[in-house]
Amino acid sequence: MARLFVSDVHLDAAAPEATAQFLDFLAREAASAEALYILGDLFEAWVGDDESDPEKLRVCAGLRALTDRGVPCFAMHGNRDFLLGPGFTQRSGCRMLPDPVVTRLGTEDVLLTHGDALCTDDHPYQELRTIVRDPVWQRRYLALPLERRELLANEARAGSRAHTSRTVPYIMDVNGEAVERAFRAASVRRMVHGHTHRPAIHSLTVDGLARERLVLGAWYEQGSYLSHADGEFRLHVLPR
Ligand code: MN
To answer: Which CATH number fits domain 3-238: 3.40.50.12780, 3.20.20.70, 3.60.21.10, 2.60.40.1120?
Structure first.
């Protein structure tokens, strides 16, 4: 049995094909898995646990069907859905993981992280990340009416698109030193992350030890997941 990893599914009402494909993935590949790990940005936005987008609620129901079948499902906050709270875990049956977290896979400890914290060259983004991850800021935001929160989330997405379009691509990729620090701090040989939408398995050496950085793909144009079975990782593409 395999453990499956996804991230950056970016689901919302504007992406009905991705939603259908993800629900299909939950009913097929994930249904026979040992566990499913969602490493952030399952949703394009999550404005609070009173989220009313029917597509997102269908995704929660799909996850609930999976967890009810006995497949454990773990979710991590991404930079889009960092407000997933108890309402989400109750609805979906998912258990939240802290970011970063070290987990045992077979005989080896592996570091799991969304990945945005590794993109330290993108200073404006890191400033924004510090603000929105502040519990005081989050309490104030969640106290606003739902429509107001949705409006602000749309504005933030437009701002993010503008920033992405005028920022050089390497700035938005991981920083090599941040990656080395993460390997060192966790004392692991492998890490799995998403966020950069650059699916790949990178081999590198840190402090004289061979390491691997496994990067998950986004679901904008196709499905993408990583499997771990019998000590081996594999990246998979699900054509749409
Ligand atoms: Mn992200």
So the answer is: 3.60.21.10
